[in-house]
Amino acid sequence: MLPIHHFRKTGQLTDNSPNARMRGASQLKDIANVVLTMNPTRDEAERLIVQTKARIGKRNPPFTVRFDSTEAGGLSLDCGGEPDSDTLGKAKTAELLMLGALAGGQRTRKELLAITAHQRISEKTTDNVLAELANANKIERDEVGREVIFGLL
Amino acid sequence: MSDLLALERIPPRSLEAEMATLGAMLTEREAIARVVDLLEADDFYNPQHQSLYRAMVDLFNDSEPVDLVTLQARLQDRGQLEQTGGTPYLLALQDAAPTAAAVGHYARIVREKATLRGLIRAAGEIRNMAQTAGDEDVDTILDRCEQEIAKVGQRGADLDAAVKTAGEVMASESVVSWLADRIIPRGRLAFLAGPDGAGKSFVGMALCQSCASGLPWLGHFAMGEPGPAIYIDCEMGEEIVNERLHALGFGDAAKAGVHFIFDPDFRLGSEFTRAMRPFVRSIKPALIVVDCLGLMLPDGADGNSNADMRQVFRPIK
């Protein structure tokens, strides 16, 4: 069975990650074998699907789905695969990696830099993308002491 | 005619199978080991047979021999030798004994008859509940009726069947079956969550399409054996679903294999489970999509309450 579930409205919680925004979150997560969350990106036709729970097998890496119109007037849903800087470019890959990471909860800037570094994405590119995502109201930024913390909006 | 009616009212039983089971137990110790986990004394219709079965199992559990001499002594101690038919009846049981290998067959007959009598008892309870319902909530009564039926045949043997050694588990062919390869397991609960307008319904419908047609989900995830899917819609309505199905290009396999239920008043819980059961049994779906969870919570259930959510999903799970 696959129940479809709306996130609660934002602005009610400190943690706006999909996990926390699911109504009855902890109970749902407890009883589910798999939780997939769909997250908007800066591309209107694209969503990032993040597997936030996998009781069976390995957790899949985040992947994109494109909603493209077909010539016949229909709609094609195609998996765009995992974020990969060789095919998507560094900025786009950084965006997807960070949105995927933030779907699991808030992250510090240091943690996000470590994630993008795996794809050989520089600190400067990561910071630029973080700023762009914040400007596009996709993420929020907060400072706690010396830590800079990011979360989904 | 009245004789026929009286005959119909005699509870299901097989005295021959009861005697054969007890006879085998009296003849071969191995026969006791075979039936002791399968039968309870109350499974025997004849009260004499119940007493005999208890006495033999007690001897067996006390690691004593079970034969004509020890059984007579045990029954004598309990003051039951005469009422169980005395020595002549025990000798008759021995004559009725099949081999230990066949005792399982007779014991199963005894148990099946006991199950049928249990159903008759449950039917009487259900009838009584219905007749004395008064102002009681009908759904509550239906739940209790289901519990009465479920109780029939629920015994220790069920637990025995559920217990396996690690070696047995490792040797079995039971492996995880995937609906969509390595992401959505078959027969398990998975959630698809996201903000409004994210396209969750499209993705859910596309999963149904792939489930029925066998085509890869999102053009990427290989699907297992194709099978029917059910999509319960409480949000969009038939007109919007119609548009979306055309947009997604449902082919013949998906057109025939995906079943939509449109009911904005559908609520999850025991009533839902009961209503769905006949349909689910008839089409045996590989997938059921519920769109959307928030609208299908029972009236008064709090979507933010873990206790309420547990109550909703326990019967479904």
3D architecture notes:
- The complex is a heterodimer of chains A (153) and B (317).
- Helices cover 33% and strands 32% of the residues of chain A.
- By secondary structure, chain A is α+β, with helices and mostly antiparallel strands.
- In chain A, the strands form two sheets. Chain A has a four-stranded antiparallel sheet with strand order 2-3-4-5, covered by helices on one side.
- Mean pLDDT of chain A is 84; it is low at 9-13.
- By secondary structure, chain B is mainly alpha-helical.
- Chain B has two domains: 1-174, DNAb Helicase, Chain A; 178-316, P-loop containing nucleotide triphosphate hydrolases (Rossmann fold).
- In chain B, α4 packs across α5 and α7 runs antiparallel to α8 (138-151).
- The model of chain B has no long low-confidence stretch (mean pLDDT 85).
- The chains are: A alpha+beta (153), B mainly alpha (317).
- At the A-B interface, β1, α2, β2, β3 and β4 of A face β2, β3, α11, α12 and β6 of B.
- β1 (2-6) of chain A pairs parallel with β3 of chain B, so a sheet runs across the interface.
